[in-house]
Write a structure and sequence with these properties.
It is found in: Cytoplasm; Nucleus. With about 575 residues, the protein is α+β, with helices and mostly antiparallel strands. The chain has helices spanning about 20-25, 40-45, 85-90, 110-120, 140-155, 185-195, 365-375, 440, 520-530, 540-550, and strands spanning about 5-15, 30, 50-60, 70-75, 95-105, 125-130, 165-170, 210-220, 225-230, 235, 240-245, 250, 255, 260, 265, 270-275, 285-290, 295-305, 320-325, 325-340, 360, 390-400, 405-410, 425-435, 450-465, 465-470, 485-490, 495-500, 505-510, 555-565. The longest helix is centred in the N-terminal third of the chain and has 19 residues, at about 140-155.
């Protein structure tokens, strides 16, 4: 029986030119087909344009179980170019352990920070690699490394990677032009650190097969090979797999893992799957899966959290680049939170409850957005309670194919690449996809998101003890009939009911079932007397003072809620 091989996927992330590819090359013993800058423009420009994969095999460390065996690190070299961040996000979904590569002469840069954010969302463990130590003058090298190590520890202390190992190396002493005979520095120490950090990732062969394909090419006389990493489930020789983006199903003819033929592969494995009669040009990267297991959706409900380093508010109706599955598309968002009555309820994870009411939000609520609101209102600085969970409706500009409950990342990738700012805005989980093209009619009416409406008007005059005439609540052209029967409250405390329109100018009649209070009548009589007195010129000093005392207008308050997706636009009062 062959010795067991445990595969751990290690993401090599960092700012452009920090030496990620050189590090992956120094570490690896077997290059996989997608490895090391295969794109011609990539080689010409000396930067990685797509995820490169290679592997490093070493003896199984004792913490990973007894018996002989090998530990295989699949190194996923993620591009550092800012415009290629969508590729990194695609790669981060398959990473167990992350190496953040930092140019020791430059420290944290914009994209190193973005990579750190992606790592926090998608990954459990990290090793920081300070690369290019050969560029430090030998006499000052040690102190410079110590200084940068302290700096990095400080940067990481408020992240989930606080206290992670930091290793100094020179992956390619002398730079890209140096002869191959130059031995890398610190790489064997780094391999030992990687072995100490390796863990048994939780792998589950059950469930639907789903694989992220990152490379597709043909082999004469064999067929088309799709290489990638299995995200869930397992695959065996002879299985049928679907390429959902093309609605094509093919049979698995043969499989390889790093040049070794295999008959079975499962979640977490890096594998090449060979099928026949399929043009590789049709699929450069994407997903393949158990037939009919993925859905293609036009919109989705997600639970989400804002990324703390993103500057600026997340506004409803704004457009973001939405990365879901292995695709990035433009999408418009609408944020909503729990109804005030449910704000303290425990939220079930990864489930969306269509029975509940939700409150529409103009923006995602965070400490920053709440404090700016407070400054505007200049209110008593009471603690505003933030909801435990917020959600968003995403509407995609074109349909996307993805698994259920997958990771979603929203970003502003059109922000200036050279601006020193984090472009990742929020991350979340896809809870419910909408497959019907006409989801606005068939699906959205089930989503009970409401807006709280508050209108104010004034009492114009008293008709009798049980009714008054109101104004300024409706525009002249409003159909008052639809408001008949709604409850209102007067600022003097009485409850009333809208009884109908009065004349043509938007005035209306209010019935007061319990009758007007004597004080209210006095106030209203004062108001109407003042109105019926002559023009302004006749106003005496006495009138002036009585105006300030009692003749404050009596306001009418109408509060109701309206469900955003209710086709009949009904007004509802509790």
């Amino acid at each position: 029986m062959a010795a067991r091989v445990l595969n751990v996927n290690v993401g090599v992330l960092g700012h452009i030119d920090s030496g990620k590819t050189a590090l992956a090359r120094a570490l690896s013993t077997t290059g996989s087909t997608a490895a090391f800058d295969r794109a011609p423009q990539s080689r010409a420009r000396g930067i990685t344009l797509d995820l490169g994969f290679s592997c490093l095999r070493t003896a199984l460390p004792p913490q990973l179980g007894p018996g002989p065996g090998e530990l295989q690190f699949t190194l996923v070299d993620c591009p550092g170019h800012a415009s290629l961040i969508r590729t990194i996000i695609g790669g981060a979904q398959i990473i167990d352990l992350m190496m953040l590569v930092i140019d020791v002469t430059k420290g944290m840069q914009t994209q190193s920070a973005e990579c750190l954010v992606i790592g926090q969302i998608a990954c459990q463990k990290m090793v920081v690699v300070l690369n290019k130590i050969d560029l430090l003058p030998e006499g000052k090298r040690q102190s410079a490394i110590e200084k940068m190590t302290k700096k990095m520890q400080k940067t990481l202390e408020n992240t989930k990677f606080a206290g992670c190992p930091i290793v100094a190396v020179a992956a390619k002493p002398g730079g890209p032009e140096a002869p191959e005979s130059e031995n890398p520095l610190g790489v064997s120490e780094l391999i030992e650190v990687l072995k100490s950090q390796a863990y048994l990732p939780s792998r589950d062969p059950s469930g639907h097969f789903l694989m992220a394909v990152d490379h597709c090419f043909s082999i004469k006389g064999q067929g088309t090979v799709m290489t990638g990493t299995i995200l869930s489930g397992s695959v065996s020789l002879g299985d049928n797999v679907e390429i959902p983006a093309l609605k094509v199903t093919k049979r698995v003819k043969s499989m390889q893992m790093f040049h070794t033929p295999v008959t079975y592969a499962m979640q977490g494995d890096r594998v090449g799957v060979c099928v026949t009669q399929f043009d590789p040009k049709l699929l450069e990267r994407g997903l393949i899966c158990t037939p009919d297991s993925l859905h293609t959706i036009h919109a989705a409900i997600i639970s989400l959290k804002k990324i703390q380093y993103f500057r600026g508010a997340l506004q409803t109706k704004a457009k973001f680049h939405i990365t879901v599955g292995h695709e990035t598309v433009m999408g418009r968002v609408m944020f909503f939170g729990p109804a005030p009555a449910n704000i303290n309820e425990e939220i079930q994870e990864n489930v969306f409850d269509f029975e509940k009411d939700y409150l529409y939000q103009e923006e995602y609520l965070s400490k920053d957005s709440v404090s700016s609101e407070e400054n505007k209102e200049n209110d008593q600085a009471g603690e505003v309670q933030l909801p435990k969970q917020q959600w968003a409706l995403l509407e995609f500009e074109k349909p996307v194919t993805c698994p259920k409950l997958c990771l979603v990342i929203g970003s502003k990738l059109d922000t200036d690449i050279h601006a020193n700012t984090c472009r990742l805005a929020f991350h979340g989980v896809l809870l419910q996809g909408m497959e019907d093209k006409n989801y606005t009619e068939t699906f959205l009416p089930k989503l009970k998101v409401y807006k709280q409406k508050h209108k104010e008007g004034q009492v114009e005059r008293v008709m009798d003890d049980y009714s008054v005439i109101g104004r300024s609540l409706f525009k002249k052209e409003t159909n008052i009939q639809i408001f008949v029967g709604l409850k209102v409250k007067l600022s003097t405390g009485e409850d009333g009911i809208i009884d109908g329109g009065f004349g043509q100018s938007g005035k209306f009649k209010i019935r007061i079932p319990d009758g007007l209070k004597p004080d209210t009548k006095m106030v209203l009589t004062a108001v109407s007397k003042k109105k019926s007195k002559g023009g302004k010129g006749d106003m005496t000093k006495e009138d002036e003072s009585s105006k300030n005392d009692s003749a404050l207008p009596v306001t009418i308050s109408l509060i109701f809620k309206r469900y955003v997706f209710d086709t009949q636009k009904k007004m509802i009062q509790s």
